[in-house]
């Protein structure tokens, strides 16, 4: 930096408090959104920011953005728009340039042009510090709002009727109406109109719909949906059913009751696992490829309504292969797909295996 520019900066630094007051008046006139800031506060900040810039330009310490960030946080928390604060700093930089022009003698004007980039670089650094501070404040605000919403959501699942009603009011939910609870995997999206809750292993939502409104489309993941219920105090019970629908469902949306057997399995997985092991027996002890081929064939046979031809088509194999594999299933489990009770036991065991997957 040119030593003559540094000397010019030092001369302005001697009058920084007066300059700060003048800058505050100019900023107040140029940016109406800063009217919420008390005049003394605005003047103090203007003087401080000028002091930092002039100290740097006069050859002092490297420019620091710490106080700029602190000021930006205060303004963000007070509700000053980001654009308004950035504009005020541009006004300040323009004011500082005018001060340099007015202070410089005829023989110093040339050095202003040569050194101007230092001043505009300072504006860039401060502007980035302001944007960073606003992003942090916004993130903190969102986090607080989410924590507050989570507390209210959890209260809906409690047993205190007063707290349930109070939470519903705070969340914008009616006490009576048509509700659904949605349980979804963590990567799934939820309807914008729903009141939602993020958990480490799932996403939950309470959806309030008008009486004749269609259920919204849900895409991009796995969802379990409770039956409709009428009173907000029934949300905890509906959540259990939504979770069962999610556990029982495949890809896409599963409404409670769509897959009764899979839902029954999901409601008592420990018991279902034990019974599946007893039903499938030696089949589960086969090498992985053989085991999976037999399981897939039997499961597909049930899914295709007991049609050997459709099962062969779905598995890209010959019908005789399907018959052979079903025979192997009977040999290993002692149960035939042609016997109603034995077929029911096989189907329940297969549903358990596939719900687990």
UniProtKB/TrEMBL annotation:
Domain PucR C-terminal helix-turn-helix: 294-351
Top-level taxonomy: Bacteria, Bacillati, Actinomycetota, Actinomycetes, Streptosporangiales
Coiled coil: none
Stored Pfam families: HTH_30 (PF13556), RsbRD_N (PF14361)
Domain RsbT co-antagonist protein RsbRD N-terminal: from-to ranges: 19-149
Identification of the protein by name: PucR family transcriptional regulator
């Amino acid at each position: 930096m040119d030593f003559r520019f540094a000397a010019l900066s030092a001369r302005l630094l001697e009058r920084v408090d007066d300059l700060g007051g003048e800058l505050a008046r100019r900023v107040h006139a140029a940016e109406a959104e800063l009217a919420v800031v008390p005049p003394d506060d605005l003047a103090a900040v203007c003087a401080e920011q000028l002091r930092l810039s002039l100290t740097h330009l006069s050859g002092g310490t490297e420019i620091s953005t710490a106080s700029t960030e602190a000021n930006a946080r205060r303004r963000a928390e007070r509700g000053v728009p980001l654009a308004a604060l950035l504009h005020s700093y541009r006004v300040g930089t323009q004011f500082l340039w005018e001060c340099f022009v007015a202070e410089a003698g005829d023989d110093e004007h040339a050095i202003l042009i040569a050194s101007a980039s230092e001043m505009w670089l300072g504006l860039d650094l401060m502007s980035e510090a302001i944007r960073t501070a606003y992003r942090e404040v916004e993130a903190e605000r969102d986090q607080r709002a989410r924590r507050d919403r989570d507390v209210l959501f959890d209260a809906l699942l409690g047993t205190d009727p007063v707290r349930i009603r109070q939470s519903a009011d705070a969340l914008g939910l009616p006490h009576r109406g048509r509700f659904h609870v949605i349980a979804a995997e963590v990567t799934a999206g939820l309807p914008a109109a729903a009141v939602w809750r993020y958990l480490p292993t799932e996403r939950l939502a309470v959806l309030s719909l008008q009486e004749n409104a269609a259920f919204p489309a849900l895409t991009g993941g796995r969802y379990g949906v409770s039956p409709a219920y009428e009173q907000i105090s029934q949300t905890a019970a509906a959540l259990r059913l939504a979770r069962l629908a999610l556990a029982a469902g495949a890809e896409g949306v599963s409404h409670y009751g769509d897959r009764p057997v899979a839902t029954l399995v999901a409601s008592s997985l420990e018991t279902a696992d034990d019974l599946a092991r007893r039903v499938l027996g030696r089949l589960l002890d086969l090498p992985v490829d053989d085991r999976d081929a037999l399981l897939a064939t039997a499961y597909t046979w049930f899914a295709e309504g007991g049609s050997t031809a459709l099962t062969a088509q779905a598995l890209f194999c010959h019908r005789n292969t399907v018959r052979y594999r079903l025979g192997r299933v009977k040999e290993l489990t002692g149960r035939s797909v042609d016997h109603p009770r034995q077929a029911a036991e096989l189907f329940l065991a297969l549903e358990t295996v596939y719900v687990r997957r």
